[in-house]
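Severity: low
Component: inverse-folding endpoint
Summary: output formatting inconsistent between runs
Steps to reproduce: submit the following structure tokens with default settings.
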């Protein structure tokens, strides 16, 4: 019997965590971690499976016999545009822990804006006892853009918190107790939204999508007064200069951003300075390495048993 092909790993995140988790993962076939100096120059021609996050530009020419590509995250935009990308299945990472982490972040940000936490932060620094009367969650409509794995979990848990939740996606979804809109109903969706939550993948359609024109269409007579923009999808979907001016002129009452046009966010970005903008460094929902490797092992086992792979992206749609 010929030896099983090792899994090629090129993950540009948390190198110590990846190296540690690889010690026990893929025990039947082994792995080649190109981030590790020992493996960096290895011959990749026989490799059949690659697990990638922002891989080296020459990876596909070095590994010309791949059968399946696995994304190290839920998004695949870091691979889709690459030169030499072979026409083979691309499987994205779908995992309970990743989904849960994202929902924690989304719910936390919605609550921070509901309760005007930035104003409390300012008062605290000034040692001021300044009570605020916040609306109830039920008075506020959260509009979730993207009703996929992450969007639907966020919707369910935002509802548990009492928010009125509506949702928008390319194709209409049916979710009990949630008014949903399809791509053609964007303006109707925005006009009902007080807090906009972006959980969209980056595709040509969603590039530069969150701009001043869109912010102006959000509801302005809701319980929060000024609408809020929250984005944890992809930074290249937002126009940051428009966010800065929308917050400055009051079109937006605040924002929460986990993703940015260019990451890391430049030290001189005006976003850092805005009191009512919460910034996190693209860590809303990190991929936990052990869970990621288990998911890849499961999918390879399915593939080798002749069963369909799960979570394969639609190359034409780009996600
Ligand atoms: P899914 O593929 O499960 O869902 C994507 C959703 O977006 C679907 O509802 C889809 O519509 C909708 N959509 C895509 N394109 C359009 C469009 N042009 N117009 C309207 N709706 C559109 O993805 P996930 O929920 O798993 O993940 C979403 C994104 O979150 C990832 O692609 C990634 O960019 C980001 N992410 C960010 C993380 C972070 O830490 N900040 C962590 C993990 C993911 P339809 O249902 O009709 O197909
Ligand atoms: C992902 C991410 O796509 O972490 O999983 O951004």
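Observed output (run 2 of 3):
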């Amino acid at each position: 019997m010929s030896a099983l092909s090792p899994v090629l790993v090129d993950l540009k995140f948390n190198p110590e965590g990846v190296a540690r988790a690889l010690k026990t993962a893929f025990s039947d076939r082994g792995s080649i971690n190109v981030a590790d100096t020992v493996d960096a120059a290895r011959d990749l021609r026989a490799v059949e499976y690659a697990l990638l996050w922002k891989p080296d530009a020459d990876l596909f020419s070095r590994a010309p016999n791949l059968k399946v590509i696995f994304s190290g995250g839920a998004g695949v935009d870091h691979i889709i545009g690459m030169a030499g990308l072979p026409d083979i299945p691309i499987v994205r990472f779908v995992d309970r822990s990743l989904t849960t982490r994202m929902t924690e972040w989304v719910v936390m940000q919605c609550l921070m804006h509901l309760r005007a936490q930035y104003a409390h932060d300012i008062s605290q620094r000034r040692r001021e006892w300044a009570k605020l009367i916040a609306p109830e969650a039920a008075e506020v409509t959260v509009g979730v853009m993207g009703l996929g794995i992450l969007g639907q979990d966020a919707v369910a848990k935002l509802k548990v918190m009492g928010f009125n939740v509506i949702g928008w996606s390319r194709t209409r979804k049916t979710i009990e107790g949630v008014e949903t809109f399809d791509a053609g109903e964007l303006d109707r969706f925005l006009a009902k939204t007080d807090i906009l939550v972006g959980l969209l993948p980056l595709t040509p359609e969603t590039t530069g999508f969150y701009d001043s024109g869109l912010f102006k269409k959000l509801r302005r007579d809701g319980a929060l007064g000024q609408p809020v923009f929250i984005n944890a999808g992809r930074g290249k979907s937002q126009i940051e200069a428009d966010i800065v001016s929308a917050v400055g002129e009051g079109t937006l009452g605040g924002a929460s951003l986990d993703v940015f046009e260019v990451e890391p966010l430049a030290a001189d970005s005006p976003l850092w300075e805005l009191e009512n903008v919460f910034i996190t460094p693209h860590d809303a929902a990190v991929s936990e390495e052990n869970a990621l490797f288990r998911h890849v092992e499961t999918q390879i086992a399915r593939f080798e048993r002749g069963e369909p792979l799960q979570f394969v992206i639609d190359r034409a749609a780009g996600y």
